[in-house]
Specification:
Blueprint lengths: L2 H4 L1 E7 L3 H12 L4 E4 L8 H4 L3 E2 L9 H12 L1 H5 L10 E5 L2 H16 L6 E4 H7 L9 E5 L3 E2 L2 H14 L3 E3 L6 E5 L2 E6 L2 E10 L5 H7 L6 E11 L9 E4 L5 E4 L5 E8 L1 E3 L4 E3 L2 H14 L8 E12 L5 E4 L6 E5 L5 H17 L36
Parallel strand pairs: 1-2, 1-11, 2-8, 4-13, 11-20
Antiparallel strand pairs: 3-7, 4-6, 5-6, 9-10, 10-11, 12-15, 12-18, 13-14, 14-15, 16-17, 19-20
This protein binds flavin-adenine dinucleotide (FAD).
Flavin-adenine dinucleotide binds next to helix 2, helix 3, strand 12, strand 18 and helix 11.
């Protein structure tokens, strides 16, 4: 194959995290020729270093339909990828620690039921104790989602990568996209390894996606943060579901090897130019205290490892997913605000449907890139819409 044909595709995807790779896979399943450009290596950033939570519980209502469709794909992952990514459908439980917390949980369930969602269920104190017998007795109840769970992030990303490559997706690592431009009907992307071109461009570059959108005059209020996690030494099994809390930051799970992963959108610091998150030990300490409040028997448990990953946050805590409103044949998926691992399969599938021109009941309107400046934008219809890639 000549070098020039190796650099041409139907779709070019910028970013080899879970969103880029799942979009690439679902496009390739439909016979589309896809190339992925990854600045470092696939799964190097948030997708490979996150807490592994597969959570629909507590989602912004605008995200729920997409998160539920993604959850169904998590349950089929073994069939789709030939590897389950370490997914364990353990259930997730958000704990209430006071009567006020419990009331907040009750109102949330009432709100969801009014909207027709019944995946979150209110549970009382005894149901919590039955599910997690070792939890502190001050807990008053909570919200339970039985089909949520957790997975192993790097294993999952690697499984998407291998499945995509098996379907013919070409992946170029250590190949950062520098300049993106549309000339005629094609997108041209320059990298230190030369130019790549395609009819359609997909930007799934995580915390770096905003810079690429800005290149084509479509700026987004997206900013990077360093999110922290810690992993303890091994301890005898004591907790099956993933736990969160109602009024304090917590995401807590025990893996089958006995280690406990503790996070919950704990913000550390960041050296964005060096593409590197930094741990702030003092802030991790307050999170450790939440855990020992809930499980006093863990107070002497040692911490084995701590780290921080780089994540993209938007001004309204919702991701950007969908077609560009400025240029044709350009799509985005980024800005998942600390909860995008769970969304990876569903968003990739939905974005592929959009690019293929397939119908879906799941609207991407809440995630439109122009929502931040709609008042100043032109009336609907003034924008070029993305054309679709025809099925072969
Ligand atoms: C510590 C931590 C814990 C988290 N816990 C959870 C959790 O429990 N559950 C959950 O659902 N979510 C969680 N998240 C969030 C989740 O990991 C992210 O939302 C999700 O992985 C984002 O995926 P992505 O593919 O959009 O971005 P990324 O994984 O960041 O991938 C983007 C890729 O694009 C590449 N790239 C950037 N610029 C360029 C360029 N110019 N050219 C080529 N490639 C480029 C990067 O190198 C990177 O590999 C957590 C995040 C962190 C950091």
């Amino acid at each position: 194959m000549s070098e020039s044909s190796n650099r041409q595709a139907d779709v070019l995807v910028i970013g080899g995290g879970i969103h880029g790779l799942s979009t690439a896979l679902y496009l390739a399943q439909a016979g589309v020729k896809v190339t992925v450009l990854e600045a470092e290596y696939c799964g190097r950033h948030a997708s490979g270093v996150n807490a592994g939570g597969v959570r629909t519980l507590g989602r912004h209502v605008a995200e729920i339909p997409l998160a539920l469709s993604s959850r169904d794909l998590w349950h089929e992952l073994k069939h789709t990828l030939g590897d389950d990514g370490g997914f364990v459908p353990s259930g997730q439980l958000k704990l209430a620690e006071s009567q006020a917390d419990l009331e907040e949980c009750r109102l949330r369930i009432e709100q969801l039921q009014a909207l027709g969602f019944c995946h979150e269920v209110l549970v009382d104190q005894q149901q919590v104790f039955d599910t997690v017998p070792t939890v502190s007795r001050h807990v008053t109840g909570g919200i339970w989602v039985k089909d949520d769970g957790y997975a192993v992030p790097f294993k999952t990303v690697t499984a998407f990568r291998l499945a995509a490559q098996k379907r013919g997706v070409r992946i170029h690592e250590n190949t950062p996209a520098q300049r993106i431009e549309q000339t005629g009907t094609r997108w041209r992307v320059s990298t230190p390894a030369g130019h790549f071109s395609a009819e359609h461009l997909v930007v799934t570059a995580g915390a770096w996606a905003g810079g690429l959108a800005a290149q084509i005059g479509e700026p987004v209020p997206v900013h990077p943060e360093g999110l922290m996690l810690m992993v303890t030494h091994r301890v005898a099994p004591f907790c099956v579901p993933v736990l969160g809390a109602t009024s304090r930051a917590l995401s807590f799970k025990q893996f089958s090897n006995g280690t406990v992963v503790i996070g919950g959108k704990l913000v550390g610091s960041l050296d964005f130019l060096a593409r590197h998150g930094e741990v702030e030990m003092e802030r991790l300490g307050s999170s450790a205290r939440t855990v020992t409040d809930l499980f006093p028997h863990l107070r002497h448990l040692g911490v084995n490892r701590v780290w921080a990953g780089v994540e993209a946050f938007t001004a309204d805590d919702l991701p950007v997913i969908g077609a560009s409103r400025k240029a044709s044949n350009l799509s985005y998926s980024f800005g998942f605000c600390g909860s995008g691992f769970q969304m990876g399969p569903g968003t990739g599938k939905r974005l592929a449907q959009l690019i293929l021109g397939e119908h879906s009941d799941i609207s991407l309107e809440p995630f439109a890139i122009d929502r931040f400046n709609r008042a100043a934008s032109a009336p609907p219809g003034a924008f070029q819409s993305a054309s679709t890639i025809a099925h072969p």
